[in-house]
Amino acid sequence: ILSSLSAKNLVLSLQKWRIFSVSLMLSYFCLGLLLITREGRVVVIFTSIIYALLLLYQAYRCNLIVKRNLMKLISIALAVLLSFNLPVASVKTLNYTNYGLAISNEFEEGNFKSFYQDLSSVKLVDSEYKPFVPIKQDEISTIISLSGNNQLARTLANLKEEWMKHGCEINKELCDEYAGGWFMWALRQSIFETSGIKNPVEFQEQVINLNAELAQVCTSNPEVLNCLPSTVGYLPYPSRWVSKGASPLKAFSDTALTHFAWLISPNAFNYSPVTHNHEQARKMRVRLSSDNTPDQINKFHQRIASFNKLSSLIRKCLLVSFLVMLLATAFWKPSLLTCLLDPGLIFILTLIFANFIVIVLVQVTSFLSVGYLSMVSPVITLSIWRYYDILLNRVKCNSASAGSDA
């Protein structure tokens, strides 16, 4: 779509207007499907906004934003907005029909996110937040003691210690705490088990009640608890990313460099211990094929490691060739560097940037996230080949123009 709007002397007939409109609606419908996911909304919405701005810019360049096209453009904009929201609206309708609650995602909609935000902002007066820990055990114990025997106290007292082990496996300093990334699950489990929740409506009502009780505890004990906001949704403020005196910017930049190095040369995939241990697998009610013994699985892992070395070499060659091509273009014909401003390429780079930033933030605030970069890696390859395609077409067009002039 963006490439078609880049054409010179663009003229849209009635048929082309229809094709363009349907294509645009399908594009935003596909983006809307991604809104159903639990963690991808911020990336999808950001990317969709950039895509809309690129479309408007291209339409302006092609003189499509004129009075005679105004009604067509308004109709397309409304249809696109409907297409984008249709998947989520459909899920909301289904949930309302079946559960009496018109939300599509309990993590991003409803009241749990705001309750988590308020609870994870609580700390003892004159104490410091602990990096990677939404709320320390000291704060949890204090809230319980100050809450009497209300639902909030029973819920926090019922948090399962088994959720502590995951953070402990990553960082021994977190062994007595609920680390970020797991506290959310511990809290949800406790809410369901303590309150005997049977449906989504009851869950939302219970979360509202818990948040009200938390607010009451904070209001009644300002000399003990500091409940000022220090989290936006599930994301803690930068001041909480590191210990006192350290730089959150440095922590972010160091993690970004580490993740970028992984993109250039990814590590081999490692199986979890359960894959090697049939006994553990049976306890988890996972049946491993009897044909695959631990030794055979180990050999398979070695083959994956060999393929990983080959793929890393290919990726390095791809990136080096891309840099060489950029330098050669800069010296040979700098005007061709404008290929980097291609709207389609900007859209792909926006997708890479948004995903990369979110994945880095996950590691800075919660847990190791380098494995998620496997979603970014193929898009980087796509961006490079997109650039080569644009460059080749531009060179062909320039050669054809030079030939006709001659």
Task: Describe the 3D structure.
The chain has 406 residues and is mostly helical. The chain contains 15 helices and four strands. The strands form two sheets. Strands 1-2 form a two-stranded antiparallel sheet. A two-stranded antiparallel ribbon has the order 3-4. A hairpin with a 2-residue loop joins strand 3 and strand 4. The protein starts with 13 loop residues before the first helix and ends with a helix.
What key phrases describe this protein's structure?
two-stranded antiparallel ribbon, 406 residues, mainly alpha, globular
Rounded to an integer in angstroms, the radius of gyration calculated over CA atoms is: 27 Å
Sheet with the most strands: spatial strand order: 1-2
Report the biggest beta sheet as strand number plus sense, adding barrel if it closes: 2 strands, antiparallel
* Overall morphology: globular
Helix content range of the residues, please?
55-70%
**Run of helices and strands:** HHHHEHHHHHEEEHHHHHH
Number of strands: 4
N/C terminus separation: 33 Å
Task: Spell out the blueprint of helices and strands.
Layout: H1 14-34, H2 41-61, H3 70-99, H4 112-120, E1 123-124, H5 137-146, H6 151-157, H7 164-170, H8 183-195, H9 200-220, E2 225-226, E3 231-232, E4 235-236, H10 248-264, H11 273-276, H12 278-283, H13 294-332, H14 343-365, H15 377-405
Antiparallel strand pairs: 1-2, 3-4
Helix pairs in contact: 1-2, 1-3, 2-14, 4-9, 5-6, 6-8, 10-14, 14-15
